[in-house]
Amino acid sequence: MGKMLYSVTMSADGFIAGPGGDMSWLSAHLAPNPLADMLVSQIGALLIGGRTFRGDDPNKGTENEGAFGGKWVGPQIVLTHEPPEGPVPGVEFVDHLDLAISKAKTAAGDRYVNILGADVARQCLAAGELDEILTFIAPVMLGDGVSLFEHPGGTSVGLEVIQHSQTPGAVGIWYRVLT
Q1: Going by DSSP bridges, is the β-strand pair 91-94/159-167 parallel, antiparallel, or unpaired?
Q2: Does residue 174 belong to any structural domain of this protein?
Q3: How far is CA 7 from the centre of its chain?
Q4: pTM for this one?
Q5: CATH number, residue 10
Q6: How far, CA to CA in Å, does 87 sit from each of 9, 84, 90, 166, 172?
Q7: What is the pLDDT of residues 81-125, one digit of tens each?
Q8: How many domains does the chain have?
């Protein structure tokens, strides 16, 4: 089985979305990135949180709409208690974390399950299922919004740097989660 990876772009002050889940800030920071491009070819399935699935795609209505600027196509498992009424092609909706992880790992085979969404990533981490984190830090501060990692009362999670990169649009740091 492949590994579980949380990949995300965040502001320099630690937010992955602005207030109300606004992702429009990200458009100004979407530049070619070799590390992100390499990752796309290594993903076998996406595990997406419900809020992220229903969220604000900064590329909506363009040819770049969708995960990784529309470059990734494949199985998508959405963890949600509020699935849409009708079917969505290529997307399976699941309401239990263990089942969502199992389905995503099976779909991914020996490639990465890429997690999209702060809450589902936090749940995977708490369940001991998160192997790696790839964070792109954009040169902007949002001041408010959805935090990269939130755990009321605090939690220390050890990380080991695997790889890093820098482009004009972001600094990328790939970590291994230490258990």
Answers
A1: unpaired
A2: no
A3: 4
A4: 0.88
A5: 3.40.430.10
A6: 29, 7, 9, 39, 35
A7: 988 888 888 889 999 999 999 999 999 999 999 999 889 999 999
A8: 1
